[in-house]
Every structure is written in C-alpha cells, then in structure tokens.
Fold this protein.
Amino acid sequence: MAVWQSTLGDGYYYGHMAAAADNSETIRSYLAATNQFTPEAIIGIIANMDHESYLNPAQGEHGKNMSSQYGKGLVMWTPARTKIEAYATSQGENWDDGDLQMDYLLISAPQGWIKSSAYPYTWDEYKQITDYNLATRVFFYNFERGTWHDELDTYTNYWANTLYGDNPPTPDPPLPPDPEEEDELLKIAMYLSKMIR
C-alpha cells in the first residue's frame, strides 16, 4: 500500500503542491509498474488529475458538500455513488483510498472511454502516445470530457519537468469539438439532468 497525502473535502487547496508532489510520484510509479503506459501517457493522466482534484484522492466536487451525486476522487468519478463509491463498497474499502482509485482507474477508463472526433484514439492507443501535450488532450476529451482549460498545458509542462526532467514544446491549441458531438453531448447532459432531479 502506498502512502497517500489527502485532505477530505471539496475546497480549493492552493497550498497543495507538497502533497501533490508526493502523490504524483505514487501515481507515476503505479502506472509505470504496469508496463503499459509511456511516460507521456502517464503525464497526461497526472495533468488531468491535477486539474480535477489537485492529485488529492479525498477531493469532492467543489461546492457540492461531498454529495455522492457529484464527482469524487482523483478524476472526479461522477456520480460518485455509482462509480468510485460503489467500487469501494464492493472491495470493502473506503472510496478515498488512493490505491483503490488507481485500481479503479484501470477498470473505469476502458469502460468510460469514448473516442472523440478531434482525438480518435482508443484507450490502448492512448497508452502508447509519445507526446505529452497530446496525451493530456486525448485523456481530457476521451475520458474526462468537459470544457478545456489552458492550465492543463501548465500542469502538463510542470509534471513532465518534475517527474521526467522534460520540457515539452509549446503545444498547438486543442482541436475544437465536433459540432455534432457537442450537440450529442448536450442532449445527453439534458437527459441526465432530468434523471437526477
């Protein structure tokens, strides 16, 4: 069992970098030990986790009072009650355990992966990407899905330098989502919002 730094809550943790540094190394080691991921793919995951949770496995979605209807964990599994919490219960563990979440990531990513038209990579193809910034974009658009934030580039560069001593080149802007894809996502979002009322 790895030692994880965590803070249970849904706040903004601006002083989180010491904990994040420890957790980033734990995540890097976990993924590298599988012998499935390039360093670039690992950084793509870590950059997205930093954006979603500050690399804090006990993080809840901001302002949602740790409600299980919303996101929780390193990648903000949503709704938590049917994803990370249900998995934790099935394993007899607590949802905020970082090791459990890394195990669940390798289960949930292939299941929840949707190839976007802008970044049409499968999960297995993602794991072999050799460009840091591309990996961050592919993981974001095909797994996290949402509105792109440019700080993801900052996180990518920071963690590539911190964990591998690399300085990625300035990335191209992310490709815009396909308008048909956006319409389909809007329909899905509207349907889901009706279900949780």
The domain at 17-195 is CATH 1.10.530.10 (Lysozyme). The first helix runs from residue 17 to 33.
